[in-house]
């Protein structure tokens, strides 16, 4: 009989799937008597489907999603249904993914129901996909933010008032501020005018936009399907002006 201590936490290549299931009960019992508690949770649910899938799944979510045309949210979540369409995960189901996330010793995975009957999965470690930040928090309610503000100039406003706010040419997100700082414009060298666009966050959430709180407490959104915040989601637009006059310069 094989004991847990002889496996060193790994599955030898010569053990068949049938043998894995046959040995699991004996291994748990023996490892408990020997005090090897670290083996217990792993062998409780080891089976043909879930063994060694965790690292592959973490790699897919952190690096490989773009090669499979998977939509990845800015906080790293991917639809479970989309993941289960990819080999070698087609033989798995939602329950399997929950088990894999639960027993993963490195806690690399999270499975959550982010919308009613809509399950998502993500890897919590650093991603190589440049626009994914697992530490960003989704804003679910308007009470979670003080506001959502976009700054532009007079020329930019002429386009935005017709087309809406769009992502920059090299950007994956639209970046917004929550407030106007008290000394906004003070560091500017010259007199100037800025157009301040206030987004109606409550209406935008109902419209289907998602917002995320960033590390610096500002906000980011992907916009709608076209990467845009349309004008009907503007709550208020202001013109902010300031001027400077040098009265002493040594």
Low-confidence stretches: 1-48
Query: Can you write the helix and strand succession as a string?
Result: HHHHEHHEEEEHEEEHEEEE
Q: What is the number of E strands?
A: 12
Q: Which value, in Å, is the CA radius of gyration?
A: 26 Å
The number of distinct helices, counting runs of at least 4 residues, comes to: 8
Mean pLDDT, rounded to whole units?
79
Estimate the strand proportion: 15-25%
The CATH architecture of the largest domain comes to: Alpha-Beta Barrel
Strand order of the largest sheet: 4-9-10-7
Helix percent band: 25-40%
Oligomer: single chain
Q: Given this structure, which CATH class of the largest domain is correct? A: Alpha Beta
Structural category: alpha+beta
Give the biggest sheet: 4 strands, antiparallel
Taken from the alpha-carbon principal axes, the silhouette is elongated
Question: Roughly how many Å apart are the termini?
Answer: 89 Å
CATH topology of the largest domain: ADP-ribosylation fold
